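Troubleshooting: if your tokenizer reports a length mismatch, compare your output against this known-good record of 298 residues.
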Amino acid sequence: MAAMKILTGTGLFLAFCALGLLAMAICTDYWYETDARRHRERCKNYANKRNDPGYIYISNHNLPLQMPPKSLERKGNGPDAGALIRGKRHFMPAASPMESHCSRQFNSTISGLWRKCHREGFDMETEDLIYKGIIQRCTAVKYHYSSSILPRNLPNNITKTIRQDEWHALHLRRMTAGFVGMAVSIILFGWIIGVLGCCQQHDLMQYVAGLLFLMGGTCCIISLCTCVAGINFELSRLPRYMYGLPEDISHGYGWSMFCAWGGLGLTLLAGFLCTLAPSLSTPTRTTTHKPRQENGTV
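Known-good structure output:
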């Protein structure tokens, strides 16, 4: 009986701690972090080329026209060879990867279930714009569909792919928020039933509380796996020059994500202890006394 009480009390305490960790993870914005300071510094150094007198910087777009390789000149013996060679001469070399990445604006951000914010103290230019009220520090994460503004010169197949990816990313965000809310509700309900079972010394209520903890842990697993899948999907969206991150931007999961994983582990452990505790209780045996048979009676 004492072992059952210890296991049940430990399980309820772990479930209470799991509720605190999950609530902290839901209410904070440190699920995913990016640090673009090194990238912005490299772009500044790339833009501030030599500016001393007498030095002229020529970008890739202003380079002379490139002649076709000799193999094409040898193959071009037909009537269309001259047009082919003239077309190849108008070939413009592509911009360097650094130049294409620096044309986009990358900021150091933190993101959670409800908001995406600029990290404080990481970029003085952004801090100045926030102080002047030009931009906001945090923007709300949308759980309804709203099409983003795209360039008009994109092909139709790329535009269609981007719209489909927006729907898919929206579904992943909805599943993440929905299942983590279900997990907290189920764990809280199971904790209340477990406390009532301890007060009334009811083994069945404690067993049900353990099952609810395991069910809440399952919902938490689905939520966290969906969150990870959503982040990986956002990083792998096409086209890469619009949605990919450069290699010099460090990114990873924040402490809010680790709080959620810690709450998941405590929830599963609490469910295991609360379902195991009733099996350790010793059933009370009731002895029934048979009446004595008197002499001459059957």
